[in-house]
Design goal:
single chain; mainly alpha; 17 helices; 0% strand
Length: 465
C-alpha cells in the first residue's frame, strides 16, 4: 500500500521542517543564552556548516544508495536532534562549531528524504507522491516561520522556548521515521528499473523549488537493463534475487563515464555553469542574511520580523516557480540573455540590501532575491532535463551542487573565515553583489554571441536556399 509510507514520509518532512527558532538563530547566538561575539558567529561558527556540507556531500550520496535510504533518513533526524539539543545546552565557541558540523550532516542527508519514496511505491504514483512530499516540507517550513514570528512578536516567548519547540518537532519526525518500511531497491548498488530510476533522479532538485518535466520518449542510458516487470516491493522473488549489486569501483567508473558524456553538450554545460555559480552565491547570501539584518537593526533594541520574511519569500517563490512553468519562450536562444538580466537584478537586490541599511528595504530586497533565484533555478532545471537523458539527471545535479559548494567553501575561506580576510558583513555583501554582477556580464556576453551566431547561421541558410 502506497498510502502508509507516503503519509509517514510526509509527516517526517513536515515535522522536520517546523523549526520556529531558525529565522532567529543569529539573534539567539548573539544573545545572553550563548553570549557569543559577532566575529565568532559570523567568521568562526557559520563557515563550519559550509565546510561540513562539502566534505559530506559525496560520501553521503553513495551511502544513501548503498544503505537504501531509510538509515540515512534516520541519521538526518538524529543529527538534527543533536544540533538542537546542543543549541539549547552547549556553551562556548568550540561546542557551537561542533553543532554546525552536525547541522551539515542534517543538510547533506536531505537527499535520502527526497529519494526514499520512489523505492517503495508504484511508478504510476510517482507524480502524486512527489507533490505530497514537496508540499509537506514547504508547509512545515512556512508553519515554523509564521509560528515563530507570532510567538516572539505577539506572545512574547523567549528564543530558548522556540528552540525547545524545534527540538520537540524534530524528535517527533525522528520517531515517525522508524516506522518507514525498508526499501528493497536503490539506484546504483541495488539495481533498479529504468523507469523508476528516471523519477528518482528527478526528485533530487526539489529542495531548490524546481520541478522537472516528464520525458517518456528519452532514450535510456546504455547498460541499464529493463526491469519494469520486477515487483518494487519484493513480491514474487526474494530481495536477494532481484538486486544486482555493483561494487564501488564499477560504480565510480560508471559515474565518471556518465560525467564525461553529460558535460559534452555545450547547452547543458552553459546552464550547469550558471546553476553552480548562482547556487554558490545564493547559499552565501541566505546563510549570512540574518547577520546583515542584525547589523542594520540590532534585535536587542527593537522588534524583528525574520520569520515573517522567510515565510513570505518561500510562498512567493513557490508562486514564481508555478508561473514560470507556463511561460512559453525560446530559452535555447534567449536563455543566456535572460540569465544575464535576472542575475543583474539579483546583484542589484544584494547591493541594495548592503547599502541602503534600512531593515524594511533589506527585507524586501531579500524577498526579491529569493523569488528571482527560485524562478531561474527552475528554468535551468527544465533546460538541463531537456538536454539530458533522465537516467543521468541525478549525477548532473550532484556534480553541480558539489561545484557550487566547492566555490562557496573557497569564497567562505577567503572572505568570511577568521583565518582568511575575515571581512565585516557589509563588505561581504558588497562582494556578493559584485559576484552576481560578474555572472551577469559573463552570460550577457555569451548570450549576445549566441544570438549573433544563430542569426548568422539563419542568414546563411536563407542565402543558400
Amino acid at each position: 500500500c502506497w498510502a502508509l509510507p507516503t503519509a509517514l514520509l510526509c509527516a517526517y518532512g513536515f515535522f522536520c521542517s517546523v523549526r520556529p527558532s531558525e529565522p532567529f538563530l543569529t539573534r539567539y547566538l548573539l544573545g545572553p543564552h550563548k553570549n557569543l561575539s559577532e566575529t565568532q558567529v559570523f567568521n568562526e561558527i557559520y563557515p563550519v556548516w559550509t565546510y561540513s556540507y562539502l566534505a559530506l556531500l559525496f560520501p553521503v550520496f553513495l551511502a544513501t544508495d548503498y544503505l537504501r535510504y531509510k538509515p540515512v533518513v534516520l541519521l538526518q533526524g538524529l543529527s538534527l536532534i543533536v544540533t538542537w539539543f546542543m543549541l539549547l545546552y552547549a556553551q562556548g565557541l568550540r561546542a557551537v562549531q561542533f553543532l554546525e558540523f552536525f547541522y551539515g550532516i542534517g543538510t547533506a542527508t536531505d537527499v535520502a528524504y527526497y529519494s526514499y519514496i520512489y523505492s517503495v511505491v508504484d511508478v504510476n504514483l510517482y507524480q502524486k507522491v512527489t507533490s505530497y512530499c514537496r508540499s509537506a516540507t514547504l508547509v512545515g517550513y512556512t508553519v515554523g516561520s509564521v509560528s515563530g514570528q507570532v510567538l516572539v512578536s505577539v506572545a512574547g516567548w523567549s528564543l530558548f522556548s522556540l528552540n525547545v519547540i524545534s527540538l520537540t518537532s524534530i524528535s517527533i519526525a525522528f520517531g515517525t521515521a522508524w516506522f518507514l518500511p525498508m526499501p528493497q531497491k536503490s539506484l546504483f548498488f541495488h539495481h533498479v528499473s529504468s523507469q523508476q530510476l528516471s523519477w528518482e533522479m528527478k526528485v533530487m532538485d526539489c529542495k531548490n523549488g524546481s520541478a522537472v518535466q516528464d520525458h517518456p520518449n528519452v532514450q535510456r542510458a546504455p547498460g541499464w537493463e529493463d526491469e519494469t516487470k520486477v515487483p518494487l516491493n519484493g513480491e514474487g522473488h526474494s530481495a536477494e534475487k532481484q538486486e544486482r549489486k555493483v561494487d564501488i569501483v564499477k560504480v565510480l567508473k560508471d559515474l565518471w563515464w556518465d560525467f564525461l558524456q553529460c558535460y559534452s553538450s555545450q547547452t547543458m554545460l552553459c546552464w550547469s555553469v550558471w546553476w553552480a555559480l548562482s547556487t554558490c552565491g545564493y547559499f552565501q547570501v541566505i546563510n549570512y542574511a540574518q547577520a546583515l539584518w542584525e547589523m542594520v537593526l540590532p534585535s536587542h533594541s527593537t522588534e524583528i520580523y525574520n520569520g515573517a520574511v522567510e515565510a513570505a519569500s518561500t510562498l512567493l517563490g513557490a508562486v514564481a516557480v508555478f508561473v514560470v512553468g507556463h511561460i512559453k519562450t525560446s530559452w535555447a536562444m534567449w536563455g543566456e540573455v535572460a540569465l544575464a538580466l535576472f542575475s543583474f537584478l539579483i546583484a542589484a537586490a544584494v547591493y541594495i540590501m548592503d547599502t541602503v541599511r534600512n531593515i524594511w528595504v533589506c527585507y524586501a530586497s531579500y524577498v526579491v532575491f529569493r523569488i528571482i533565484y527560485m524562478l531561474l533555478i527552475t528554468i535551468a532545471t527544465f533546460q538541463i532535463a531537456t538536454n539530458l537523458s533522465v537516467e543521468r539527471y541525478a549525477l548532473v545535479f550532484g556534480v553541480n551542487t558539489f561545484i557550487a559548494l566547492a566555490l562557496q567553501t573557497l569564497l567562505t575561506l577567503i572572505v568570511v573565515d577568521a583565518s582568511g580576510l575575515g571581512l565585516d558583513i557589509f563588505t561581504q555583501f558588497m562582494i556578493y553583489a559584485s559576484y552576481f554582477a560578474a555572472i551577469s556580464l559573463v552570460f550577457l556576453g555569451s548570450g549576445i554571441y549566441s544570438i549573433m551566431r544563430a542569426y548568422r547561421r539563419q542568414e546563411q541558410m536563407q542565402s543558400r536556399s
